[in-house]
Amino acid sequence: MLSSNKNKVILLIGVLAIILLIIVYRMNRIETPQYSQNNGNILPGRTEITDTQSSSNVEYRSKHKIDTLFVKHHLLKNNSTAPSYIDDRTIIFDVDQYIDEKGTSVHNILKFDRDKNKTENIYQSKPNISIGSLVGINNVLYWVEYPIYLESVTPWEIKYYSLITKEKGTLRKGVGEDFINPPVLFVENNQLSWIEKRIDEKVVTSEAIIYNPDSNKQAVVGVSHLNEKDKNKKDGQFMLHHRPIEGGLLINQSVFKRVNNKTTKNFDLYFYPYNKKISPTVVYPNSNEIIDFTANQEWLVLCTYGKVQVINRKSGKLQYEALGESKEMTFDTPFIRGEFLYYRYSTNQIFKLNLKNGVKEEVTSPRSITSKIFNSNHFLGFAYNQSVNPNSDNRVEFTIINTASVD
């Protein structure tokens, strides 16, 4: 009788162990949920996982090499920054600086030499001129300069600076009318892209432009028009923001239509191919809640409040969905590199998702403030801004992911 009871206890312990293993496995995996389509929109199923279920003890199981660097500079005191341009030897970042008691400020571009562990200030803007969307391609930096106080008419310039020859100049200039913001620059596949807007007889024209430094040529990828002759009867399309991907640009647009003598407003995510023989297409309609996005030939990634969705572009069905701890928190700066999707959750953590099997991992533990992710060729980078801590010794922590190298 005693032996029989022992066998039952051992059997019960074995069953409980198997159940525990199954639970742990599911907590560390994003399952592939089933979705149905309704008028072109993706409706979520029941299977979901939160991005707070992973262990806070980070284990780097990535195939990509990850380096952590600490950069110290007096301008980092009570300041924040991020690695805007990265290569094997250099990290470029920018910081603000107040130069008098009246609040006059300048903007600085700093260069960190990874071999010499040395930082130098290579560029400073004129007083009260801001530097926006600093990026780089093959040792040439690009950024947008504009007054820090935006007005109804705001001039802007796209500037460049060679890290090799130290040559600097203006690539393009324009004016933002009616409080329209200056362009925002992005880089992908060694091309620079941005959106310009101009107003002519109360018609706003949006132009998506790419620049190839190798050929020194600029090209208009897409154009949209919004008729605002009557503000209460708007009609047309207005380009909001974009992301460069393979073969073209993803552009989120506001769409105004006159229906039954009334104006309707919607948001649609378009794909504008570089090949002008192919017409732009709507890849995701009713994109009102989209904060950020990216895509490749296989996947469309949408970042919204409280979740990241990965959609199979061929089937149009949702393959993976990662949920945040709060529906109010945002996801942003998604980048697909090989089989991995990298993204930021809120302002305090970086994650990655394996697009082959749905397994997700923490790249960092939760820490505030963690910057957005920035890209330079095969590098991804972000910053943990210790400088906001008065005890940080004027340092910033850069994390650099080399997606072309195996750790």
How are the SSEs ordered, and which strands pair?
Elements: H1 2-27, E1 36-38, E2 41-43, E3 49-50, E4 64-72, E5 85-86, E6 90-98, E7 105-113, E8 118-124, E9 129-137, E10 140-147, E11 153-162, E12 168-177, E13 186-188, E14 191-200, E15 203-212, E16 217-227, E17 235-245, E18 248-259, E19 262-273, E20 281-284, E21 292-295, E22 299-304, E23 307-312, E24 318-323, E25 331-337, E26 340-345, E27 349-354, E28 360-362, E29 374-376, E30 379-384, E31 395-406
Parallel strand pairs: 3-24
Antiparallel strand pairs: 1-2, 4-31, 5-6, 6-7, 7-8, 9-10, 10-11, 11-12, 13-14, 14-15, 15-16, 16-17, 17-18, 18-19, 19-20, 21-22, 22-23, 23-24, 25-26, 26-27, 27-28, 29-30, 30-31
Features:
407 residues, 6% helix, 31 strands, eight-stranded antiparallel sheet, mainly beta
Report on this model:
With 407 residues, this protein is mainly β. Helices cover 6% and strands 54% of the residues. It contains 1 helix and 31 strands. The chain has one helix at residues 2-27, and strands spanning 36-38, 41-43, 49-50, 64-72, 85-86, 90-98, 105-113, 118-124, 129-137, 140-147, 153-162, 168-177, 186-188, 191-200, 203-212, 217-227, 235-245, 248-259, 262-273, 281-284, 292-295, 299-304, 307-312, 318-323, 331-337, 340-345, 349-354, 360-362, 374-376, 379-384, 395-406. The strands form 7 sheets. The chain has an 8-stranded antiparallel beta sheet, with no helix packed on it. It has a 5-stranded mixed beta sheet with strand order 3-24-23-22-21, with no helix packed on it. Strands 4-31-30-29 form a 4-stranded antiparallel beta sheet, with no helix packed on it. Strand 19 (262-273) and strand 20 form a beta hairpin. The longest helix is centred in the first third of the chain and has 26 residues, at 2-27. It is globular and about 65 Å long.
